[in-house]
Model the fold of this input.
Amino acid sequence: MAFVCSVPTLCRTILSSLLLLFAAGIFVPSAPAADTLTIYSGRSERLIKPVLDAFTAKTGIQIELLSSGTTELVNRLKAEGDRTSADLFITNDAGSLELARGAGLLHPLNMREIERAIPAQFRAPDNAWVGLSGRFWIVVYNNTMVKPDQIKSLLDLADPKWKDKIAIPNSGSEYLQAGVSVIRSTYGDEKTRQFLQGLKTNADNQVYQKSSQIVDAVAKGQVALGIVNHYYVYRHLAAQPGAPIAVVMPDQQEGGMGAIMNVAGVGVIKSTKRLDSAKLLVEFLVAQAGQKLFADLDKEYPLHQDVKADPALVERKSFRAALVPLSKLAELREPTITLIEQVGLR
Done:
C-alpha cells in the first residue's frame, strides 16, 4: 500500500527522518545475503570439505564446491576466461597451480599473513598460488613380505627381483607425473626411461587409478610394495591399526636425491568479484588453525612452521627432500608425459 500524507510539513519531517535512518545504517529493510565463494577443487571432497566447513562456521561465508580432475579444471578455467564463476582454485599439485599462474588465471596476493605463515619455497614468487600442505612420494610395503632395508630408493623398484610384486599409479596420475619430473630433473632422461621401463615390467597389471587402492593391495598381500603419497598409508592405518604395512622414506642414502615432495595449494582467480572474501579464505587456510586441520584430518605435513604434523608421521626433520623447485614442475610436465607415453605406461 502506498504511503499517503495530507500534511506537507509532516511529510517532509517523516521523509527527512527516514533518510537520516538510512544514512546512519539503522534502518535496514532486510539483512544482506551472506557472501558465497565458488571453488574449483582438484582435491577429493572428503579431504577439503571439513576444512571449508570450519571456515564457513567462523565467517558465515558459504562455499560452493565444484570438484573434478585437476587438468580438467585448469582447461575449464582457460575456456571460461573472465566469464568463470570460480573465485578460487584448490588442487593437489604445485605444477598444476604454476600452469594456471602461467596462463594468467590467478591473482597475485600481497598479504603479510602469507609471508609470515608459508615459507617462500612453497609458494609462487608473486603469491599467485600458495602451498597449504605437503606430501611425499614414498614406498609402502607389506612388513610380512619385505624388510625395510631391502628398499633404499624409488629407483630400486625397477630391479627385476620385484617382478609382479609392486603396484603403481596410472600414467594419468598427477602424482606420477610430478614424481617422474623430479627424477628426470635429477638424473636425466635415459636413467628415468630405464626406471619407467622397469616399473612397467614389474607392475604388469597392478596399475591403479587411486592411491588408496594401492595401499589396500599392499595391506592384503596382493603385492609387496607400492608407490603412493604418504598420507594414504597413515589414513589406512588410522582406520585399520593392525594392517601389516609400513613406510620407507626413500632416497635418503648419501648422494640420493631426497624424498620427492609436492604440495596441495590454493590460488585466487584473477577475475573474481569477491576478492576480499577470497583473501579471508586464504588467510584462514594458511593460519595455524587451518594448517592444524590439514595435519589432523588429512595426515599431511603442515607448511606453517609452528604447526606440528600428526605424531604418527615420520618426523619431518629426520629426512631430506629433493631439491627440485616446486615452481619447476610445470615446465617439466610435458616432456615427462611424452617420456611416460614413449615407455608405454598405461
